[in-house]
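Re: the 310-residue chain
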Amino acid sequence: MIALAAVMWLAVLAALAFGYYVRCVEPKRLEVTRTDVHFEGLPGGLDGLTIAHLSDFHCQGDRGIEWSSREAVRLAMAERPDLIVITGDMFETCDVARACGWQLEGLAAPLGVWAAPGNHDRAHGDPFAGLEAPPEDLALLRRVLAERGIRLLANESATVEVGGASLAIAGVDELAFGRDDAGRALAGTEHADLGILLAHTPDMLDDPRARRADLILCGHTHGGQIQLPGIGAPWAPVWRDRRRASGLLRAGEALCYVSRGVASATRARFHCRPEVAILTLRRGPETAARDVPVHEAEGVRRQVIEEVAS
C-alpha cells in the first residue's frame, strides 16, 4: 500500500514537473539554429550570404512575450546577418501593432529587414474568426513596421544587388484571408540570380506559382510546439500536411525553410524550442532536405490556368 502511494505521488510530481517545463522553461529557451542552403550555380556575390529568419513574435502586452521578442532581436543582431526576414505574425492582432511595435526595435542589416504579413497581423480581436481583413490594416502595418526600419511585402517584391549579383525578395499576403497572390508577388523576379519568397504559412507550397521561387521561407506552425521522439509533431496548424511543421523541406523543385517561431501561442513547448534561424547561402550540390508532398487544390489549379491563358 505504501509502495503504491509512493508511485502515485511520484507520478503526480512528474506530471507537475513536466507541466512546469513545457510552460515555463522551454518557451524561454530560444535557440539559434544554423543551416547551409546550397544552390548549384549560385553567383559568387551571394555565396556565404547570411539570412536571419524570424517568425511569429506575436507581440502583445504580455511580459513573457515582451521578453521573448526582445531576446530574439538580441540573438539575431548578435549574428550580424546580411539580411533579416520575418515571416508573419509580428503582432497578436492588428489592434496592438501601434502599442507593441517597440518590441521589434533594433533589427537592422546591410541588405535590409523585410517582412510578410501573417493571419494574426491581419486580424482584429480573434485571429481565427476567418473574417476578411480590411485593406486599411495593411497601411497601418506598413507604417508601424517602417518606423522600425522594416519593409512589409504583401504580394510585391524588391531586388537588391550584392557583389554584382541580384537577389529578389518577395512577400505574399496572408493565405488565411484569401489575399495571397504568389504570381503577383514574384512578378518581375525571374531574371534575378536568386529569388526568395516570404510566406507566412507553408501551405503556400501547394501554389505552383510560389514554387517558382528558389527558396521559400515560412512560419505559422511554431514547429507544432510539441515534438514527440520518433513521431514528430502530432499536430501543427498546417491545413494540408503536418510534416511541414518545421525545418528544411523540398516540395518539388522548391526549397523551403519553416521556422519554429519566437513565441508560443499556447505558452507550451516540448522538444521544440523557439528559434532564430540563421541560413547561409552556399554554392554547391543541392542541399539535402526532407521531401514533402504537394497537394494542389483545384481552385489554385484553375487560377493558374486562367493566369497562363490570359
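The chain has one domain: 2-309.
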